[in-house]
Amino acid sequence: MSEFDTQLVHGTPQHDNDTGAVNVPIYASSTFIFPTVDSQVKWDYARSGNPTRNYLEDQVATLEGGAKGFAFSSGLAAIHATLAIFSPGDHIIIGNTVYGGTFRLINQFFKRWHLEFTAVDTQDAEAVEAAVQPNTKAVYFETFTNPLLKVTSVKAIANIAKAHHLLTIVDNTFLTPYLQRPLTLGADIVVHSATKYLGGHSDVVAGIVVAKTQELADRIYFNQNGIGAVLSPEKSAQIRRGIQTLAVRLNRHLSNTAKIVDFLQSRDEIEKIYYPGIPGSKDYEIAKDETNGFGGIVSFELKKGLDAKKFVESLNLIQLAVSLGAVESLIELPYKMTHAELSEKEQLAVGITHQLVRLSVGIEDPKDLITDLAQGLAQL
Ligand SMILES: Cc1ncc(COP(=O)(O)O)c(C=O)c1O
């Protein structure tokens, strides 16, 4: 098999048309011909399967090292289809700082369907083990949490999960298979908001699930086809294209982020930096062991008394917006924007203060990004 960076560019050739097209065509077809009534056709109806979507699904399955991939119309649709493999009365342990939309799906949707959840700090393996109940079926977490970049060991959780016959489900949005392949570290299912790094250009909302085994793949496929939140052929082609440049984009995200972290460390206005690439923390040790890089998101706290709103609003190049993982740099205040659904008490309990800023570092020239941050800080 070819090297990972080559696999990003070349998925499995479909050889399904005689035009010689280098890329898989966008099959804008909702239905497909049966040569005869009794024909066993590979494609019959596009919710059940579409060749363009299938190319993307095979591409991500290979990159993550799983049996089968599935593409959805959003990251949350992917998470919904994953958690919907469980049944009423099942219990799932979730990371206590998972993406807010995942919490909303759990608290305001799946609990009504009688799935039970316990939220724990998944960096603390003992806390995870202590939360296991007779009806526990899975542990679900993000390896790098948002916005404080606390790192969970996939190996540690997968070991506990295996001992208790639980599934390990990892949201790999922040790292992508370029930086971490959870299935190779013991996880069973990986989910993505492909809206972020996989797409990479802030122009598509999409989700991905990859299952390690065919048995799990069959359960996810049932939900993909049965619930039906599939990714369109057009959007599938856009995510496929995004994936082709994943390595080059992430290399630049990583080097830009390292330079910005150095810059922030040199500034008196900064109280604290949250980035797993800074040595001396448990996060650094786990990330060093289990990832190929520390990611393109950095959060930092401004010193007390400095106006965080004024800072983010004063930037010229770095845009004030939620989301992350795209070519352009985006900045936001978690307490007001991405994590506004939490009460102030809940925010403070997980370390989200009014001084906290989250920066998704893009692939611009790092000198311009640092100049922009410097002029913003100079205004405080
Ligand atoms: C870690 C993580 N998982 C899942 C999602 C949900 O994905 P989507 O917005 O594509 O539905 C997000 C969105 O921000 C996210 O950051």
Biggest sheet record: 7 strands, mixed
CATH topology of the largest domain: Aspartate Aminotransferase, domain 2
**Dominant shape:** globular
Helix share, percent: 25-40%
Low-confidence stretches: none
Number of helices: 14
CATH C-level class of the largest domain: Alpha Beta
Strand percentage, roughly?
A: 15-25%
Number of self-contained structural domains: 2
CATH superfamily of the largest domain: Type I PLP-dependent aspartate aminotransferase-like (Major domain)
Average pLDDT confidence is 96
InterPro entries: Cys/Met-Metab_PyrdxlP-dep_enz, Cys_met_metab_PP, PyrdxlP-dep_Trfase, PyrdxlP-dep_Trfase_major, PyrdxlP-dep_Trfase_small
Cofactor: pyridoxal 5'-phosphate
GO molecular function, one term: carbon-sulfur lyase activity
Family: Belongs to the trans-sulfuration enzymes family.
Q: Features of this protein?
A:
alpha/beta, Aspartate Aminotransferase, domain 1, 14 helices, 36% helix, 15% strand, binds pyridoxal-5'-phosphate, pyridoxal phosphate, Cys_met_metab_PP
Describe it.
This protein has 14 helices and twelve strands. The chain has 380 residues and is α/β, with parallel strands linked by helices. The protein has two domains: 4-244, Aspartate Aminotransferase, domain 2, CATH 3.40.640; 247-378, Aspartate Aminotransferase, domain 1 (Alpha-Beta Complex). The strands form two sheets. It has a seven-stranded mixed beta sheet. A five-stranded mixed beta sheet has the order 8-9-12-11-10. Helix 6 links the parallel strand 4 (136-142) and strand 5. Helix 2 (51-64) runs parallel beside helix 9. The longest helix has 20 residues, at 246-265. It is globular, with a radius of gyration of 21 Å. The termini are far apart. The relative contact order is 0.13. The mean pLDDT is 96. Bound molecules: pyridoxal-5'-phosphate (PLP). Pyridoxal-5'-phosphate (PLP) binds next to helix 3. Pyridoxal-5'-phosphate binds at residues 74-76, 99, 101, 142, 146, 171, 173, 193, 195, 205, 207.
